Amino acid sequence: MSAMQRNKGKAGELEVVGLVRELTGWDVRRRVRQHAGDSDLEGVPGWSVEVKRHAQAGRGDIARWWLQTAEQAATASALPVLFYRVDRDQWRAVWPLAVTLANQRADYWRGYEWTAETTVEAWAAAARECC
């Protein structure tokens, strides 16, 4: 990974930290020392967060990122949320539809086909209610 890619990733994570803090009031921080399978952010209760910032992204890219996010969340026994942004666009959140269900059993709803893609604001509203 080039220095430019690392800087772009770091800047993206810091943007999401600011958004989530503003929308939820949680003490969210960027995880500085990341190991394989770690959430990109700390302080998001009950959620394992993956942040992606790319020039462009197709459905296949988002589905692949979701798989990574869901696997990482399963390891952490947390709900997965993927925040992504392509150049000159707004941040989007991908999260399991099961969060909105009464039983909230997201463990079997981890496939990309069972997700909602929303604004960060919509995810934050659901996240504040469920966790």
Q: What is the CATH architecture assignment?
A: 3-Layer(aba) Sandwich
CATH-assigned fold name: Trna Endonuclease, Chain: A, domain 1
Count of beta strands? 6
Percentage of residues in DSSP E strands: 15-25%
How many helical elements? Answer: 3
Helical residues, percent: 25-40%
Task: Report the uncertain regions.
Answer: none
Please outline the major beta sheet.
4 strands, mixed
Structural commentary:
By secondary structure, the protein is an alpha+beta fold. The protein has one domain: Trna Endonuclease, Chain: A, domain 1, CATH 3.40.1350. It contains three helices and six strands; from the N terminus they run H-E-E-E-H-E-E-E-H. It has a four-stranded mixed β-sheet. A two-stranded antiparallel ribbon has the order 1-2. Helix 1 packs across helix 3. The longest helix is centred in the N-terminal third of the chain and has 22 residues. The mean pLDDT is 88.
What distinguishing features does this structure have?
single chain, 131 residues, alpha+beta, Trna Endonuclease, Chain: A, domain 1, 4-stranded mixed sheet, two-stranded antiparallel ribbon, 3 helices, 6 strands
Summary, kept brief:
With 131 residues, the chain is of the alpha+beta class. It contains 3 helices and 6 strands, in the order αβββαβββα.
List the helices and strands and how they pair.
Elements: H1 3-24, E1 29-30, E2 41-42, E3 47-54, H2 59-76, E4 79-86, E5 92-96, E6 115-119, H3 120-130
Parallel strand pairs: 3-4
Antiparallel strand pairs: 1-2, 4-5, 5-6
Helix pairs in contact: 1-3
